[in-house]
Amino acid sequence: MTEKAHIVGDGLAGTWFARLLDSRQLDFLCFGNGKTNTPPVAFVHLFQGRTFRRHEQELTAFRSCIEFWRGSEFSQEWSVLRKTTPGDRLQRSAHDHNVPEEFAPKPQGNDLFAYRPGFTVRAKDLTKFWRESFGNKFQEQTVEIGDLSGPVVYASGLGIEELLPNLRWDTNPGRTVRARCREHPARQPEHLVIAKGFHLGGNPGEEGFTVGGRVNSKGEAKNDETQLAEEWLKEGVEMCSQWWGERIANALDRFPIIGWLDEKAFVFAGFGGRALFWLPFCAPLAVEAYLEGSNESLPTALSIERFRNLL
Ligand SMILES: Cc1cc2nc3c(=O)[nH]c(=O)nc-3n(C[C@H](O)[C@H](O)[C@H](O)COP(=O)(O)OP(=O)(O)OC[C@H]3O[C@@H](n4cnc5c(N)ncnc54)[C@H](O)[C@@H]3O)c2cc1C
Description:
- The chain is α/β, with parallel strands linked by helices.
- The chain has helices at 12-23, 56-69, 89-93, 123-133, 160-163, 225-233, 275-292, and strands at residues 5-8, 28-32, 42-44, 75-83, 106-109, 112-121, 138-140, 152-154, 169-181, 192-195, 198-202, 209-212, 237-250, 257-260, 265-269.
- It has two domains: 5-38 and 124-167 and 252-310, FAD/NAD(P)-binding domain; 78-117 and 170-246, D-Amino Acid Oxidase, Chain A, domain 2, CATH 3.30.9.
- Flavin-adenine dinucleotide is lined by residues 8-14, 31-33, 35-39, 42-44, 142-143, 145, 155-159, 174-176, 212, 245-247, 269, 271-277.
C-alpha cells in the first residue's frame, strides 16, 4: 500500500495505528474529533469475564501485552486479586483453567484468587502524547469519509456500526471514578482488585486510584464506587472526578475486527472493554495487513474474514 493512509479515529486504535506508520516513516493523515472512549486510567489483565478459561488467541495477545506495558512510563504493574462467589463459574474454572502456570489463578482463601501480571495505564495521556507527536499529520475535525481519497482506516470506535450495520453490536456505557483516601490521599491499593462488575487500581505515577464502576440496566451509575473502595481499603474514600464513555464489541464473539472490508476500507475496531489488552498484539498485525493490501496474514479469530458472509 503506497498511497497516503487516511486514519479516521483519534482513540487508542487510531493513534496506535498512526504511530506504527509514523515509526516506519510512512505517510498518513489521522483525523479525530476528541470524542474518544479512552478512560483517563484503565486496566489490563488476562481474565476479563466470568471464567478463567481463555481462547488461545488471548494467550498469544497477552504475551505481547506484557512486553508492551511492562516498564512503560504510562503504566504500572500489579498483582491482581480477584473476588469470586462460592460455586460460581469463575471459581469453578480456577481449578479447570487452560492457561500456562505462570498466569494461573492461585487460591488465597476467602473466595479470592491471585494472578499476575496486571497493569493500570494512563490511557488518555498516552493517546494525547502520540497525537501531539504527529504534528500536522493529525487533524482535529469530524471528517466526511466520502471526501477522502485513497484508502481509509476505520478506527472510528462507535462509528464502526455505521460501516458494518449487518453485524450485531453490543454497546455499553460505563464510568470510571478517580478517588483517594481522605486521610491518606497518596495511598494506593497494594493490588489491582477485581470483583463483580468493579475494578480498583492505583493511578500510575500519581496519587490515589481509579475505580471502574458499575451501571444498572438503564446505564445509570450505581454510584457505589467509593463505598466499594472503602470496603477494600478499610478507610474513608472520596471521589475526585468521574469520566463516562461507551464500549463497543461485536455481539457474536466480542473479539476485535481487523482487515480490508473492500479495496478502500480497512477496519480496525470493536475492542470492547479491552483495547489496552488487544492493541499491543493487534496493531502491528493490522499495519502489516494494511501494507500488504491483504487479509491473509491475519489470525482467523481476529480477521474481518470470519464474518464475511454476514457483512
Ligand atoms: C467506562 C469504560 C471503561 C473502560 N475500561 C477499560 C479498561 O479498563 N481497559 C481497556 O483496555 N479498555 C477499557 N475501556 C475500553 C476502551 O477504552 C475502548 O476499547 C477504546 O477506547 C476503544 O478505542 P477506539 O480507538 O477503538 O475507539 P474510540 O476511543 O471511541 O475512538 C474513536 C474516535 O474516532 C472518532 N471518530 C469517529 N468517526 C469520526 C469521523 N468521521 N471524523 C473524526 N473522528 C471520528 C470518535 O469520535 C472517537 O473520538 C473502557 C471503556 C469504557 C467506556
